[in-house]
């Protein structure tokens, strides 16, 4: 074979560079634009790519659920099985990276991961988010529900942090309306947490025989409960008497076990909405979707062990300062607060405990060779 003339290498190298680097970029750009045109959702792309998670299998002692899941992940017999562990989460583009890590942690630490069914609540980009979950978790059993923001948007009052005013933050109040009637119990989880223990233990929390006990959650009776409501609330006897004969304590709504049968029977969604309507007329609280839950449920819940909510790892709501773990065992790490671990890691300013979240991060890095 004759060697290339000395004048040819620059042209050849340019052609090689074009094929290897420029052409893929142009192709990627074209794909993005086509997706934008074909999408009828609020946002058309997710700014990250995610790796596929490994498949997890049941241990030999797990009960068998012998039903097939169809391609739409909506097999009613599976959803309605008494052996199924139900988990509810909200999904949006802003927090999808946190949600992916949370899902992975639930599956990885479960003794019966094949018996877990996820219920995802979205208010926009439903198809895009559903496809993203399916690609990273092709074996996951789940269903996606569309949450109509208009149901609650007219009831929302501004809070101390704008992120708390998102209508999707209020979707937890409507789970009983969205999830199929045959589902009797669900574990609700925020997107900024990871589990390091079997979720079956949390799901099995005993709610007792009292029909008025609707949910279980980590509660903190040492917190200053009065600070969650305004002086207007406490100075009005008809309002402050709401907590009469109730040992009301702050509890975290990012980790809850909910009896949906009792919730529906007591029409608790309406009770929450009534407090939100009052808030529009006279400001009785400052902090987003939490106070209506406190007004309805505080003092009437089952307390979950604090190991299931090592909370506040996101720091305070103003500066997002790093925090340490609370004393005691750990089953769940919760980055509640202003700072989120994926944001701090990307900024190369992580808090020490963000290193515990990082192993569950499914982010596909640009130079990763993972399939």
TrEMBL record:
Classify the source by domain of life: Eukaryota
InterPro entries cross-referenced by the UniProt entry: Glyco_trans_8 (IPR002495), Glycosyltrans_8_dom-fam (IPR050748), Nucleotide-diphossugar_trans (IPR029044)
Q: Which UniProt keywords apply?
A: Glycoprotein, Glycosyltransferase, Membrane, Signal, Signal-anchor, Transferase, Transmembrane, Transmembrane helix
Task: Give the membrane topology, semicolon-separated if more than one.
Answer: Single-pass type II membrane protein
Molecular function per GO: glycosyltransferase activity
Q: Which Pfam families match?
A: Glyco_transf_8 (PF01501)
The record's similarity note reads:
Belongs to the glycosyltransferase 8 family.
Name the record gives this protein: Hexosyltransferase
Q: Which organism is it from?
A: Lupinus luteus
Lineage of this protein's species?
Eukaryota, Viridiplantae, Streptophyta, Embryophyta, Tracheophyta
